[in-house]
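Q: Given only this backbone (768 positions), what sequence would you predict?
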């Protein structure tokens, strides 16, 4: 693209906008590279907001931009390669950002697109606690459109990058796209701004880059080394996690409260990636640097940032984010994304640099005492969220292999050697009597002053372990919080209930597998031709089993068996306790080997579930055998039936039954073979003969048994008609015409009906 040397900025922007419509993607990117290289910052600053929006989409979600969340290398390799090269940490876009950053340009960002708590705070003229917003709020003049933030080019770029994960709604075809293969996810793993290069891994990453050689735009020599790291971490945390204030979280405890924000599975996966990189970065300090005594005045800003990044920026917002997800996420397998994000945060030792030197054996390794301070300073992340997971697990169907896997994952992580002891030690420190002196408590509650960098506002390290644990708990839950010990009697009771459910889920999975095999084996051959009654009541297909059978039962059994073993290790449960619970909650089977009905009592209107019965149904432990118990002719039209034909056949059979009711009754009352033959075809088992759930309803329906009647509804089934067409087709292959074929079918059915009549009568006599 050739531009005149003295081109006006407005014409430059207009030309690029026109090219974005008329030129292919590759050519547009080539032109942008040349523009960024050739034009000065004064002219480039006019196109910067438009370019950022054209890449990441508009903040209202109307414009999708380059659609980075759906762009994949295996689907669109050319576009993917060009986009990733353009947005690379050392690519043209970041060169443009730093070019404008050096000139100290500012760009307006609407406050209305910020996360809820931040937006509400600024609109109420209260400055948020994050230094990210300090000295940036621009109040509008009288008659203005709204509040804005005056952001640097680097901040403006990151705001759009981070918010596009939330504001851009996935396209209809994006449901089948794997998140980890998308350009956006790869860019988060390659962002130039999170300068985590110094924690020593090899590939270039948006979360690992440029600490050691980034140029300074901050006059403060003490913080020039970390300004990009600090900015990017604050932006990602504010945009991705700060959707719940402490006050809002407390109001949201009601399960009926309306959710102001609900993250997507993709959102959670990206946050997990951020946490993994943060752990690797924060814990890349040497062992001697981790001890509180090592934090001297000689510590570099980078070392201080590593020490304080997680507790200062991430901990509280992540805790509220996880609490909301645990309380409001649907009770299905998609919760696995939230679960893995939580477990990644709980295990920083998995991402520490020395992990590479550890052996790769499958045996559980002991958690080093080095991590005791992290466990203690994140006590609620372990204990309260574990209780939250127990609450979810007790309400899910553990027969599902996916749900069983989640229980197994949590139990395995918490059962790592020495971790439970660290958690218990943290709880003991919190429950110690309050011995701190008054000025210490005041320091805990004092709000830090706002500065351009967090380092000056971050308090020095506290060496009192008990005080640190109390500060953590009170900071996240408030001074009046009521702490429930993870290894106390209340949580132990929940664990025992979960252990009982695990045992029952194993039995239920085996029972369902047996029922599936029995129903498949018992299906008669003639049912495929439509001559036998169809099961109109369906079968038990819930429980979210991938497929009923030995494989799913084996997976479920393995996951639950190991989960039970880990829970017994953590909470020191004995086999006698498990056996007593199983017996007390009624997991025995009846003499036929089938599950009993849910616990209930008989009332005036039928069976009434007891609280135990409701608990059994919710957890999939027992169920009613639901079947249609009304007039078979009046049941709803099924998906395998032709609606218009069923209605027509119903009118025809109703007319015949009305016209010949007396004659059919007389035939069915005969005691000879003809009477038996007519009863087999013209009578239906009365409602009184069915195994109704309620003895009260059984008595009421006994009088509603229908007399002899003809039913032609089976002719409205697709399967019946298809079977007849198939029979005529096969007959035509043997040169048998339609009329002879019809006679043969009628003759064959008469022989079948005679045999069934004789067998039915013999069965009745044998029963008598």
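A: Predicted residues:
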């Amino acid at each position: 693209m050739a531009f005149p040397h003295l081109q006006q900025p407005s014409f430059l922007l207009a030309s690029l906008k026109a090219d974005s419509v008329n030129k292919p993607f590759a050519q547009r990117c080539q032109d942008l590279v040349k523009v960024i290289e050739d034009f000065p910052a004064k002219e480039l600053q006019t196109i910067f907001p438009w370019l950022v929006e054209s890449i990441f989409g508009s903040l209202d979600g109307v414009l999708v931009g380059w659609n980075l969340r759906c762009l994949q290398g295996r689907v669109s390799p050319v576009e993917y390669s060009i986009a990733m090269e353009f947005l690379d940490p050392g690519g043209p876009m970041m060169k443009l950002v730093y070019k404008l950053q050096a000139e100290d340009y500012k760009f307006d960002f609407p406050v209305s697109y910020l996360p809820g708590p931040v937006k509400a705070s600024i609109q109420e003229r209260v400055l948020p606690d994050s230094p990210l917003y300090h000295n940036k709020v621009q109040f509008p003049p009288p008659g203005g459109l709204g509040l804005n933030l005056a952001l640097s080019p680097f901040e403006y770029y990151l705001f759009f990058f981070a918010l596009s994960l939330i504001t851009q709604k996935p396209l209809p075809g994006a449901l089948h796209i794997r998140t980890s293969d998308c350009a956006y996810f790869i860019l988060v793993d390659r962002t130039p701004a999170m300068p985590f290069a110094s924690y020593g891994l090899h590939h270039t990453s948006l979360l690992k880059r440029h600490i050691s050689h980034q140029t300074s735009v901050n006059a403060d020599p003490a913080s020039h080394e970390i300004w990009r790291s600090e900015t990017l971490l604050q932006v990602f945390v504010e945009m991705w996690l700060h959707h719940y204030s402490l006050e809002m979280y407390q109001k949201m405890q009601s399960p009926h409260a309306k959710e102001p924000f609900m993250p997507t599975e993709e959102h959670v996966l990206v946050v997990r990636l951020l946490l993994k990189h943060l752990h690797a970065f924060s814990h890349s300090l040497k062992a001697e640097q981790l001890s509180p005594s090592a934090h001297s005045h000689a510590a570099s800003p980078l070392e201080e940032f590593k020490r304080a990044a997680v507790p200062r920026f991430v901990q509280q917002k992540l805790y509220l984010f996880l609490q909301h997800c645990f309380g409001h996420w649907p009770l299905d397998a998609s919760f696995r994304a939230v679960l893995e994000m939580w477990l990644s945060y709980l295990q920083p030792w998995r991402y520490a640099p020395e992990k590479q030197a550890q052996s790769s054996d499958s045996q559980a390794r002991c958690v080093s005492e080095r991590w005791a301070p992290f466990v203690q300073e994140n006590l609620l992340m372990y204990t309260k969220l574990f209780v939250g997971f127990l609450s979810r697990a007790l309400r899910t169907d553990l027969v599902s292999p996916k749900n069983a896997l989640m229980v197994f994952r949590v139990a395995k992580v918490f059962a790592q050697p020495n971790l439970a002891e660290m958690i218990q030690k943290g709880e003991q420190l919190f429950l110690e009597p309050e011995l701190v002196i008054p000025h210490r408590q005041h320091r805990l509650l004092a709000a830090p002053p706002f500065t351009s960098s967090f380092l000056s506002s971050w308090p020095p390290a506290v060496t009192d372990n008990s005080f640190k644990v109390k500060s953590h708990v009170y900071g996240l839950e408030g001074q009046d919080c009521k702490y429930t010990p993870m290894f106390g009697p209340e949580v132990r009771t929940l664990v025992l209930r979960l252990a009982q459910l695990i045992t029952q889920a194993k039995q239920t999975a085996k029972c369902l597998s047996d029922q599936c095999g029995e129903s498949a084996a018992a299906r008669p051959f003639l049912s495929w031709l439509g001559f036998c009654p169809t099961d109109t009541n369906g079968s038990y297909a819930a429980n979210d089993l991938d497929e009923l059978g030995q494989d799913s039962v084996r997976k479920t059994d393995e996951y639950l068996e190991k989960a039970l073993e880990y829970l017994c290790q953590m909470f020191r449960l004995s086999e006698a306790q498990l056996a007593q619970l199983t017996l007390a909650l009624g997991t025995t089977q009846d003499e036929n080997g089938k599950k009993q009905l849910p616990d209930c009592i008989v009332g005036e209107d039928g069976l009434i579930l007891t609280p135990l019965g409701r608990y059994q149904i919710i957890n999939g432990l027992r169920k009613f055998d639901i079947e249609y118990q009304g007039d078979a002719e009046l049941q709803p039209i099924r998906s395998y039936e032709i609606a218009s034909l069923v209605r027509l056949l119903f009118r025809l059979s109703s007319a015949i039954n009305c016209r010949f009711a007396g004659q059919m009754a007389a035939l069915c009352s005969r005691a000879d073979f003809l009477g038996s033959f007519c009863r087999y075809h013209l009578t239906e088992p009365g409602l009184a003969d069915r195994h109704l759930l309620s003895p009260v309803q059984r008595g009421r329906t006994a009088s509603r048994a229908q007399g002899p009647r003809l039913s032609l509804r089976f002719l409205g089934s697709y399967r019946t008609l298809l079977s007849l067409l198939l029979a005529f087709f096969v007959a035509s292959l043997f040169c048998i015409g339609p009329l002879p074929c019809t006679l043969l079918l009628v003759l064959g059915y008469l022989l079948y009906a005679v045999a069934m009549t004789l067998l039915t009568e013999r069965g009745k006599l044998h029963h008598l």
